[in-house]
Amino acid sequence: MNTLFLTVFLFLIPILLLFARRKRSPKRVPPGSLGLPIIGQSLGLLRAMRANTAEKWLQQRIEKYGPVSKLSLFGKPTVFIHGPAANKFIFASDDSTISSQQVESIRLLLGDRNILELSGDDHKRVRSALMLFLKPESLKQYVGKMDQEIRRHLEMHWHGKQQITVLPLMKNLTFNIICSLLFRLERGTRRDELLECFQKMIEGMWSVPVKFPFTRYSQSLKGSKRVQDIIKELISEKRVELERKTASPLQDLITCLLSSRSDDNGEVMTEKEILHNVMLVMVAGHDTSSIVLTFLLRLLANDPVVHATVLQEQEEIARSKSSEELTWKDLAKMKYTWRVVMETMRITPPIFGGFRSALKDIEFDGFLIPKGWQIFWAMPMTHMDDNIFPEPSKFDPNRFENQASTPPFSFVPFGGGPRKCPGYEFARIEILVAIHYIVTQFTWKLCADNNFSRDPMPVPTQGLPIKIIPRKLVN
């Protein structure tokens, strides 16, 4: 018996020593619980987002586990990190360390060859192709087209109305701008079908990826399949037009991507890459801009001083013009208005947070993030930090009068570093042109309370119904 006890004891010594070293090692897996398989804490986070208590939900995790913790979201083990250092870690890390792979539910909907999923040379190649269309020098020529779309929208859906619901109309507007500028897809049955399937697709983007019939995610997958089929048809048509020289390479986003060549070896984008990146641009361009415009109108209705200052700036621009249509130079004059937009995105960012994937075992703040785990970050954790933005709940556009005073990686509505959203300038033009015509042509009053939920993007009560009066009747 003594011999057996000694044998077992000697066998256990290395294991006990290894365990002790791991307990002392700074590279330990963060504290927390992974919860139930597949579901984990996904339902808890989604419930908190819909109740607009997600920041509180995350703050409770911080109080319980500290600044770094583990959990399970959307079927994968995840590490939650926050703060400027965490944002820098997310946005500025080397592609060999962190991949910006999205959660499985989003990847299956948008495809695995979009810019958010790629790394290294593939990411640089595809980003360069997208920037041919989305860089400021190229977008200058599209200001007039965007101007026309917005004025047509207001004429069709605002003029002659006494009450409207802002969010669905803003989504209608941004979708039409996408179809006109990115695809040159004119109004008609195919455009209507694309909108219907697209709306079905985005409803399930942040959901538990369960593919049972009649689940939200299953319906979203069906919508995504049809959207991809329509885009494939458009790609084939644009390719034929380019071959026949009836379309130009910079006519729209699809022709631009079909015509792009890598500077190094002349490599073209594959059809799969074009399809998946068009899907991504559609989602990014549709949701973020429509949400920002909706909450911007909500803010202006609640803050008469800010509203009056924005109106004064826009009326001065309108009076200084010889033609009705806005130009690139006019947008450059909208400095105060853009500060108001940035403050709106600080308080109510359209994207709550995002995910990355650890490509190898990595360390952050003394903790180990195992290879293959997700990394989750949330914008409000810095946007509403009173150490970064004093009185964070107060709306103050002058915070951004001197942007250099904002600590790096603290204000991140468009991301940061080499992975900053390539559609930043497109969104800026869209928002500024829209707000110019809305504030100079209408005044409005809210018809619902100021509450909102996240699903996963912020949605105001009843979609923000407002009473509108043409300004010529007010004056």
Automatic annotation (TrEMBL):
It is a single-pass membrane protein. PANTHER family: CYTOCHROME P450, CYTOCHROME P450 26. Heme binds at residue 421. PROSITE patterns: CYTOCHROME_P450. One of its GO terms (biological process) is sterol metabolic process. It comes from the Eukaryota. One of its GO terms (molecular function) is monooxygenase activity. Pfam families: p450. Its main location: membrane. Keywords: Heme, Iron, Membrane, Metal-binding, Monooxygenase, Oxidoreductase, Signal, Transmembrane, Transmembrane helix. GO terms for cellular component: membrane. Its cofactor is heme. Belongs to the cytochrome P450 family. This is Cytochrome P450. The keyword Signal applies. Residues 1-20 form the signal peptide. It is found in: Membrane.
